Amino acid sequence: MTGTGSLDRALEILEIIGRTPGGLTNAHVSRELGIATSSCSYILGRLERKGFLTREPETGRYCLGLTALTLAHGVLREMGFRSLAEPTLYWLASETGLSASIGVLERGHILLVDRLESPRFIEDATEAARWNQARTIRLTGKIRRREMRDIGRELPVHSNALGKVILAHLPRGEVMQVLDKYGLSRSTPYTIISRERLFTELDQITLR
Fold first, then answer.
1. How far apart (Å, rounded) are the C-alpha atoms in residues 43 and 59?
2. How many domains does the chain have?
């Protein structure tokens, strides 16, 4: 495997593991990429030594390491609009009683780059912390799972309110290019997978 090939594989491995909760084993990664387990093991080992991955001894699964987090923090730091938008996030959460988020359109997905939880969310989370475990379990139905709220999470642009707002304010030609390239995948039973229905919603957003 050439140096360039190893680099490409390493980047693919980081992407695959990054979008897989709980991580993956060497066998899973090698099967996913269609490469020999020995070659995969070499790349995984290098990434682990550099801190891009960590390996769980009991399961042999590789997960993203803290070096990846450090790089992600650097990206967020360079996004100057986050500090400019922060007062607006606080205002929105206060006025609506809902959570407020900032996202950017990236490769057909909305990448969550900042989020402010709603006052109600904070109340529910605090209440959950005060009560016993059984009560906490009942309360979690009110609280969106952590993986649904994490900064850095990617969602198909058409599958969420934030993405639809961004699409609604793009020129229709750019929206068509995004849909032509990435399609309308189904994330939940309620995801819109019809262009006609999606454009109807986008038109409703711009009229409000």
1. 18
2. 2
In a domain, 73, yes or no: no
Q: Helix, strand, coil % (nearest 5) of the chain?
A: 60, 10, 25
Q: Is the pTM of this model over 0.90?
A: no
pLDDT band at 2 (very low <50, low <70, confident <90, very high): low
Residue 74 placed within a domain: no
Structure-block tokens of residue 121: 């969310």
How do residues 31-74 score in pLDDT, each as one tens digit?
999 999 999 999 999 999 999 999 999 999 999 999 988 888 88
**How many CB atoms sit inside 10 A of residue 191's CB?**
14
Residue given tokens 């594989």 in the structure block: 9
List pLDDT tens digits, range 77-127.
Answer: 777 777 788 888 889 888 888 888 888 898 899 988 888 888 777 777 777
**One-letter amino acid of 56:** E
Q: Alpha-carbon distance 154 to 104, whole Å?
A: 10
* 50/19 same-domain check: yes
13 shares its domain with 113: no
CATH of the domain at 54: 1.10.10.10
What DSSP string runs through 2-32?
-HHHHHHHHHHHHHHHHTSTT-B-HHHHHHH
* Bridge partners, 55 (sequence order): 62
Q: Which two tokens stand for residue 148?
A: 């649904």
Terminal CA-to-CA distance of the chain, rounded, Å?
55
